[in-house]
Hints:
Elements: H1 3-22, H2 36-41, E1 48-53, E2 56-60, E3 67-71, E4 76-79, H3 85-96, E5 103-107, H4 113-116, H5 119-123, E6 129-133, H6 136-159, E7 192-194, E8 197-202, E9 205-211, E10 220-224, E11 229-231, H7 254-265, E12 271-272, E13 280-281, H8 283-309, H9 314-320, H10 325-328, H11 340-352, H12 367-378, H13 381-393, H14 397-410, H15 415-430, H16 435-448, H17 461-466, H18 469-477, E14 490-496, E15 501-508, E16 511-515, E17 524-528, H19 530-537, H20 543-548, E18 552-555, H21 558-565
Parallel strand pairs: 4-5, 5-6, 6-7, 11-12, 14-17
Antiparallel strand pairs: 1-2, 2-3, 3-4, 8-9, 9-10, 10-11, 12-13, 14-15, 15-16, 17-18
Helix pairs in contact: 6-16, 6-18, 7-8, 8-11, 9-11, 12-13, 12-14, 13-14, 13-15, 14-15, 15-16
The site of zinc ion (ZN) has 7 residues, from helix 4.
Amino acid sequence: MSFKQIFLLITLFFYLVSCHKENHKSSFKEEINIDYSLQKHSEEFKKEVVKVKENIYVAIGYGLANSIMIVGDEGIVIVDVMESGEAAKEVLAAFRKITKKPLKAIIYTHNHADHVFGSTGMVGNDQVDVYAHELTPYYLDRVVNVTRPITELRGFRMFGVYLDDKALVNCGIGPELNINPSSQLGAIRPNKSFKDSLAVSIEGIDFELYHAPGETNDQLYVWLPNEKVLLPGDNIYKTFPNLYTIRGTLYRDPKQWTQSLDKMRAYDIEYLIPSHTRPIIGKEKIHNTLTTYRDGIQYVHDQTIRYMNKGFTSSEIVEKVHLPATLKNEPFLQEFYGKVSWSVTNIFHGNLGFFDGNPTTLQPLSPIKKADKMIHLAGGFEQLFEQANSAFLNNEYQWALELTDYLLRKKPQDKKSITIRYQSLVKLGESESNPNARHYYLTSAKEVNGFVLTSIVEPDLRTVHAVPLEGMFDNLSVNLIPSKCEGVTVNVNFIFTDTNEKWSVQLRNSITETQPRLVKDADITVEIKSTIWKELLAKKRSGFTTFLSGDIDVSPGISDFKEFMSYFEE
Ligand SMILES: [Zn+2]
């Protein structure tokens, strides 16, 4: 083979790899039905910049969240900056048709990706102040360093990131999560934070920021007293609130959420601009909407607790708690994002933990044992399959799905069972008006048929460099593989030559303890720049090239350190 042929082959290989990466969406062969009310809900996300007041604009429909621009004397402030650099730049270009005044500050209403990950794209090389609640960096780091692998994949299912336009209608709070494998994802860390409240004047505009835990613990709202404008972040949007999110998060406390809404109700608000869905204008309308919203949350909370205290289990309470007649038709309480049933379950378990009180669920049979027993009960595998098949034919899709749990637990490759499971998931997805449930079912259907979800999210270098070393070591700790280091005790000192920080990691008892200081008589000492260490852990560079380029210095030798690193997941 000539050099030219080899070159062409390599080029073709990289082209195919990049095509595969770009085309992350998966299509369905069959027509996928859409619930009418969900389709109609798309009207909320008509893509446009809405002028709310002479100096206040909101970009809707450019991505999952809104972005809000406040124009001051000689500059602008932007509240929430979209989920990616591309979405942020598109919003900024739309804002630039209104004013060319420079960007002076950004405000994050909370840590969620759709509000912060467009910041490096929006800000570019400008130096701007970034305002957020003091807890925002903690929650950002927690997601990025600790729970990212699983919440990312579950989030992709929930937002339908891998579904094509036939299957993805809207995401309930926005048209779609606007990310793809080549997205620029960067969150600039806040440099102006506060605990309870902060009053600040920027370019002649008075801002009041208040801590308002609800959808997240770090949530804030922005009050512009002279404009009578309130920006509530994600504590209200035009759908039932996401008291629980199926991608999985820490407990969202409904009590705190209603209290935060009550704080907002005390103002004479003329313009309410949420970070999702459209603005509400008019004092009375705003007050009534906030009241309805907080009442919906309180109702579900209080009734769940009432039944919980009577000894009902969570699944029993799901059957009992439905919004009352005065609330159930309210436009802001339709279940296009959160669901009452999920909220009930979450409130129950958020208060009482995993155990529902039924002794049967205290130490249940393992999934495989239960599958064996159910198959035996049915009279054999084929008989249980017949039950699943007829459940499907009778439109009992949930029951069919539950039976395929047993069938596939026993025979994971069984083609007939896979088909029933696939078809049941598609039917369940099609009939849902809740997009989170729809997307989760439809994406899971693709996965049953062998589609593999991979991570397409990579924070940019600036974001990786800004993560504190402590967060990086937290990440290491939850990636330890006990079977690879049983009985091993080893002390590693880290000297970060650029920041002069010194850290030590002790591995013992199949855990790692990290300390912000060196230990005496370390087995291994590593000298490295903190930026390079972070790039290594974020897989932005390889260990091999780092070693070859002399960017890492290890004593007594690199092989001991390589072995130490082999104890962790990649
Ligand atoms: Zn949001």
